[in-house]
């Protein structure tokens, strides 16, 4: 039997130790219900929820995305210091940011080579390195 979007959303929330409230289930089903990884903004996820007929406020979408990140289910990728994308793919990988469409997509991980990171200040450790490659069409 194939998992439904709701089943996938429920399992995903359980992996993060989150209680499956109606709003969380609705948004989780939109994010992982088809089994694919995606990059969303709060606004784009809100639009998807409206299209699906769910009643979830934009503030709830923001709060829920933050809860998903805190639970280790998503990563936040900040572009331009003011625009955040939320990524359901959790392994370390670079991103392309398409300036003309404001879209974030995965970049080939096997083609990126990082060498020579600076030492972390005393009493800290590097938790991750985000790489966003900005693209402009010619």
Helix content: 25-40%
Judging by the overall fold, what is the CATH architecture? Orthogonal Bundle
Distance between the termini: 47 Å
Strand coverage percent:
15-25%
Uncertain regions spanning at least 5 consecutive residues? none
Number of strands: 6
Shape: globular
Classify the fold: give the CATH topology: Arc Repressor Mutant, subunit A
Q: How does the helix and strand content classify structurally?
A: alpha+beta
Mean pLDDT: 93
Largest sheet: 3 strands, antiparallel
Question: How many structural domains does the protein architecture include?
Answer: 1
CATH class: Mainly Alpha
Give the helix tally: 4
Output the helix-strand order.
HHEHHEEEEE
Per CATH, the superfamily is: Winged helix-like DNA-binding domain superfamily/Winged helix DNA-binding domain
Task: Give me the side-by-side strand order of the main sheet.
Answer: 1-3-2
What Rg do the Cα atoms give? Answer: 16 Å
Task: Describe this protein's structure.
With 138 residues, this protein is of the alpha+beta class. It has a single domain, classed as Orthogonal Bundle (Arc Repressor Mutant, subunit A), CATH 1.10.10. 33% of the residues lie in helices and 17% in strands. It contains four helices and six strands. The protein has a three-stranded antiparallel β-sheet with strand order 1-3-2. It has a three-stranded mixed β-sheet with strand order 5-4-6, with no helix packed on it. Helix 1 (5-15) crosses helix 2 and helix 3 crosses helix 4 (58-70). It is globular and about 45 Å long.
